[in-house]
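Q: Hi! Curious about what Lysophospholipase L1 looks like structurally. Here's the sequence.
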Amino acid sequence: MKKIFLFFFIPFLFSFQVNPDKIHIYIAGDSTAQTYDTTKTLQRGWGQFLSLYFNDKVEVINKAKAGRSTKSFQDEGRWAEIVSNIRKGDWVIIQFGHNDTSDKPERHASPEDFKNNLIKFITDVRQKKANPILLTPVVMRTFKDGTLVDDRLKQYPGITREVAKEYNVPLIDVNQKTRDLILKLGDEKSKSLYMWLEPGVDPSKPDGAKDDTHSLEAGAMQIAKFVSGGIKDLKLRGLCKYVK
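A: Let's find out. The predicted structure is below.
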């Protein structure tokens, strides 16, 4: 006799513990924001440092995951997990773009789909009486003949800015802030913020790396500072007063 296995969707699998007495900031994003195992790699995401810039009244729940786009973050149930847990007054930081430009079908979101996905995220958060914040994607340290071009992100940062304006959502222009920083530092000095490594330095990159997308600790902490500073500059009621 063949055994038949039945699988049921169980909502509580998407729940997780948060401190009910704190203000919650959820992060939906990709590898540039993800939390990394510090015992296995030197790569860091800004999301794992954001809590350092707030006092103990705030709890950061970082759900960012490498390789995810506005499409795959939904398809894998990651967005549903956030929505099912947010409560009135919470904050959700949304930052995508790097993987939406990918030609991999499981990741790719056309400019039109990217915009619609951002609008859906905003709508879902507001329906829970919570607060969305849009971030443009981190600049890619792409130099050609001494000039920072960053042409790989295409029009996606611009779309994020447009959606923020159209739907009256707070925007922190991380793309512009990181661009300005990289331009100030220049080609060589800016490598110290990214995963530019000699062989044998990082166990996850035994042959070294010349990565213009992902951050070392110094870069990730600077981006986290941009994000917290942006929250303070925007004077976001109910959140900015907790920024250190």
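A: A fun detail: The longest strand covers residues 209-215.
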